[in-house]
Specification:
By secondary structure, this protein is α+β, with helices and mostly antiparallel strands. About 35% of the residues lie in helices and about 35% in strands.
């Protein structure tokens, strides 16, 4: 069964140059996983951080579960990421030395478990972003002209 993608951080690939990606599990409460399965998650303002030997997801919004009761979860609480110790140590070293940051790219469900794809990223300069926009516009224009040729 293929992975069920729940949320994608589309701005991350525009704002950052992704150098490396890895998969992490997330520690969730019962109402959080139900809300994720319903597709009610957002990674737009989220980022990850390594603190005291543990990885944390900060700023991810998982909407409260509609059928939940007063024990429902807080939508933007800090969530622990599940990684191997050697992965955490490697990420901590890279983020401290090289000016890299951890950015969540995609939230999906694999084999009934919520997984998060995080990327080791370097911020793009403004001119790099402009180049990406120009290339996208050129691609659209080419597609538009090819469609017009087919119609003729």
């Amino acid at each position: 069964m293929p992975d069920q993608t729940v949320a994608v951080n589309r701005r991350a690939r525009f704002q950052y140059a992704i150098e490396e990606t890895l998969e992490a599990g997330i520690v969730l409460s019962g109402t959080e996983i139900k809300s994720i399965r319903a597709g009610r998650a957002n990674l737009a303002e989220a980022y990850a951080r390594i603190e005291r030997g543990e990885a944390w997801l900060i700023g991810a919004h998982i909407a409260p579960y509609e059928q939940g009761n007063r024990n429902n979860h807080e939508p933007t609480r800090v969530r622990k990421l599940l990684l191997h110790r050697d992965q955490i140590l490697e990420l901590a070293a890279k983020t401290q030395q090289k000016g890299l940051t951890l950015v969540p790219l995609k939230l999906y469900i694999r084999d009934g478990m919520a997984k998060l794809e995080i990327g080791l990223a370097r911020g793009k300069q403004t001119h790099d972003k402009r180049r990406v926009i120009a290339e996208r516009d050129q691609r659209r224009e080419l597609e538009r002209t090819s469609k017009e040729r087919i119609k003729l």
